[in-house]
Amino acid sequence: MPEVEGLAQFLRERAVGRAITGVEVGAISALKTFSPAPTELAGATVTDVVRHGKWLDLATGGEAAGDPHLVFHLAKAGWLRWYDAVPTSMLRPGKSPIALRVRLDDGAGFDLTEAGTRKRLAVHIVERPEDVPAIATLGVEPAALTLEALQELLAAKNQQVKGLLRAQSVIAGIGNAYSDEILHAARTSPFALTKTFDEQDAARLLTAIHEVLASAVEQAAGRPAAELKDSKRRSMKVHGRTGAACPVCGDTVREVSFADSSLQYCPTCQTEGKILADRRMSKLLR
Predict the structure, then answer these.
(1) Structural contact between residues 58 and 74, judged by C-beta atoms closer than 8 angstroms
(2) In this model, does residue 18 exceed pLDDT 60?
(3) N or C: fewer beta carbons within 10 Å in the chain?
(4) How many CB atoms lie within 10 A of CB 91?
(5) What is the dihedral angle through the alpha carbons of 232, 238, 241, 244, rounded to the nearest 10 degrees?
């Protein structure tokens, strides 16, 4: 979420007030809607850039019928490449990692790109952002989360706290990386069950949510789009740092599988020195 907020600020400064002169689709699989068509954005003026959880929303107005919104989710391997002068050559579908190209009336613009073979980048052109089901079902924004609200979420279902923090329909925008960082800051095991949290535990978790994300948003603010991902990696204390020393206590950062990915944690800071069992290895040993 902090990097997406950084992108929203970056685009707001450069695209708001500019007219869209063209939209080219490089990967038809990324386009999840068929009406309005991408060509219908031509002539529309970007009026705002808004973040919804991890989604970015370019609101438009002007000649385009219905004032459509260009809404996109970059997923794990996607990113936005900004140009002060967009290449003049037209996109050739399927010939590059570029999923979508947007041209603006001052010659600038951007590409949405996605690396790797698992294509999850999603682009929607809709009349309202709430027409995207994943946006309509988003949970509370972390900055708006109160202690009372968090306690209600923790008590609603007995699950591992890592899963609660990742669930976009519960808390919008945290995701895998920042849930690792939040749990490390809160000195909490990712596998701790939510119904075991007392008021003190919940307060410590809430403080970590607010402080970790506020710090990351501040760090992302004002950075060019090209620098945001590297800045994020450098700021991580445990996520993506398997085998490195924990910057707080010096213990070795460990990794364990979780759902469809993996998580990183510090045993000394979070699990009283206990090494969490990796279910991937358990399956292999059966």
Answers:
(1) no
(2) yes
(3) C
(4) 18
(5) 130
Distance, in Å, from the CA atom of 180 to the CA atom of 162, rounded to the nearest integer, reads: 8
**How far, in Å, CA of 110 to CA of 186, rounded?**
38
> pLDDT tens digit string along 97-125?
899 999 999 999 999 998 877 788 999 99
CATH class of 142-285: mainly alpha
Name the token pair of 209.
């949510």
Mean pLDDT of 260-283: 82
Q: Which two tokens stand for residue 62?
A: 């002007």
Crossing angle of helices 199-220 and 2-15, in 10° steps, is 30
Fold classification of 2-136 is N-terminal domain of MutM-like DNA repair proteins (3.20.190)
> Domain extents for the chain?
2-136, 142-285
CA end-to-end distance (rounded Å), the chain: 38
